[in-house]
Amino acid sequence: MSRAEAAPAGATAVPASAAARRWGLSLLISEVTTTFRRWRTLALLGVLAAVPVLIGIAVKIETGDDGAHGGGGPAFISQVTNNGLFLVFTSLAATLPFFLPMAIGVIAGDSVAGEAGSGTLRYLLVAPAGRTRLLFAKYATTMAFCFAATLVVAVSALAVGALLFPLGEVTLISGTTIGFGEGLLRALAIAVVVALSLVGVAALGLFVSTLTNSGVAAMATTVGLLITVQILDQFPQLSAIQPYLFPHYWLSFADLLRDPVLWDQVLRNLGLQALYAAVFGSAAWARFTAKDITV
Amino acid sequence: MEGRSRPEPWPGATEGAPVVETRALTKRFGGQLAVDGLDLVVPRGSVFGFLGPNGSGKTTTIRMLMGLIEPTSGTARVLGEEMPRGTRRVLPRVGALIEGPALYGFLSGRDNLTRFDAADPTADARTRRARVGHALDRVGLTGAAGKKARAYSLGMKQRLGLAAALLQPRELLVLDEPTNGLDPQGMREIRTLVRSLASEGTTVFLSSHLLDEIEQVCTHVAVMARGRLLIQGTVGELASSARGRLAVTTPDTAEAVRVLKEHGVNDLAVLDDRVTGELPAGPATELADLNAALVRADVRVRAFGAERASLEDAFVALTGEGFDVAG
């Protein structure tokens, strides 16, 4: 009480800072900076940045001898030599099935369990961070990492593509040609859709993270679940359940390279991600707000 | 703040509602009762020593008071509000060090404090830097503030944990084994710090297994064993509940034992030229008469006196066991 009275009574400053405090803006900023200052986070982003470099160099060497096209490899790879911008699409298509969600799994899995394991969770809670607010800050930070990771892949791919290959007009899947500027816009849209595709796995990782006090166990479980679900998505016999698996529509982002854009699968993907976020976000909240913190 | 009356008047309590008040507080983990029907009252302004062997339920009690775990039954009120429901309003006024410090090894000492302060929604971001600096200064860590916490010694980590509890002026400080890992000089500094905080009006709730420490800084004490509260009261009350011992230094030990036994002194023991024994109950025995009787019997007395019972004596009398035995 004495603190509330002690707060300066500036007419305009107080409502703004009061709102910022209620939403825990300080905590969110602290959470984001703490996560992005860790060597582990930077290493994950470094690995993701290296993927487009490897693909770009591989494509350059492959086409150096100008032999017949193999036709294998990730989507769009055959077009990279004509237009460096396609390296962005190729790299996102190559990293989305495993590299990106694995990185998200590490960050999300460690988010609560890692703090519990090191004991810092109890000090955040007696600060008092508030369990709901802390969980929200953790999820928002994981989302920020989803966008950062996708952006790192896209920007690295664009840089490598511009260095190794010509840039220019983009021929879409449907055969239409658009200018480089619009191509860049579509690349940006694709990056956003890819980042949003990771919302589901982030919520799943957060939930797993509230179940254990070991960060490593939570990361391993999340990544294990990801691999299992990816394998299940391959069996035609399981076609009945596949539309409900979170990676099922991931590669639908390619539909943004059609003219006109085919929204059907893209929207289905985003809806599925929202469903996963709602289900596992609620489960994480129910678990975390009722949990006895004994470490 | 409280409309209802307190269960019992507390002897020697300072005025005002108690800072901590639990009623039949119980926590069961699986089949095991960790805390069993605890009725604890911490008066405002006290330095409250919370004693007990390892595994007696001290830390579980502290975790319930801090809203980290939910009681199985019973209630815990801190600063007038029930926990864990009042967490958001109560905890900004409470500083805590629970089961040792926990830090982000990859952050500097200063950044650790900044992070913990940012987690408190009532903390003013504009004064954060100054308050962090002041807290570091108070525990003597200003010189090491820029070092990564993983390079800290155990004592330095303990100090940084204390600094986190001191980021704001607090009404209540909960310190669980605050001198763990500190050298004697560091322990003395912490004791001085606790005393100065108490003199500023902060109630300090101090759990420790060092009886000596409790006796030196605390005004009140509670003793737990096997999840139950054995006794609570002022340190003076508890120590006086254990009877003092008489000690006589003399070369004529055999004769001294005979005379003392005649005068009702029990449990006599001889060690070299020292005879000790338990004074008889009741105020009847005047120490001067005992001494005169010894002299009359030609016992050459070199030293004579009653040794005040220590908290340790009281504790052993209460629990019937050595201190560090797990309950």
From TrEMBL, chain A:
Transmembrane segments: 42-63, 84-108, 142-167, 187-208
Keywords: Membrane, Transmembrane, Transmembrane helix
PANTHER family: INTEGRAL MEMBRANE PROTEIN-RELATED (PTHR37305), MEMBRANE PROTEIN (PTHR37305:SF1)
Name by which UniProt lists this protein: ABC transporter permease
Source organism of the structure: Streptomyces triculaminicus
Automatic annotation (TrEMBL), chain B:
GO MF term set: ATP binding; ATP hydrolysis activity
Record has Chloroplast as a keyword: no
InterPro entries: AAA+_ATPase (IPR003593), ABC_transporter-like_ATP-bd (IPR003439), ABC_transporter-like_CS (IPR017871), P-loop_NTPase (IPR027417)
Limits of the ABC transporter domain: 20-251
A Pfam cross-reference name: ABC_tran
Top-level taxonomic group: Bacteria
Keyword vocabulary terms for this entry: ATP-binding, Nucleotide-binding, Transport
Acetylation is among the record's keywords: no
PROSITE patterns: ABC_TRANSPORTER_1, ABC_TRANSPORTER_2
Family per record: Belongs to the ABC transporter superfamily.
Stated name of the protein: ABC transporter ATP-binding protein
Lineage: Bacteria, Bacillati, Actinomycetota, Actinomycetes, Kitasatosporales
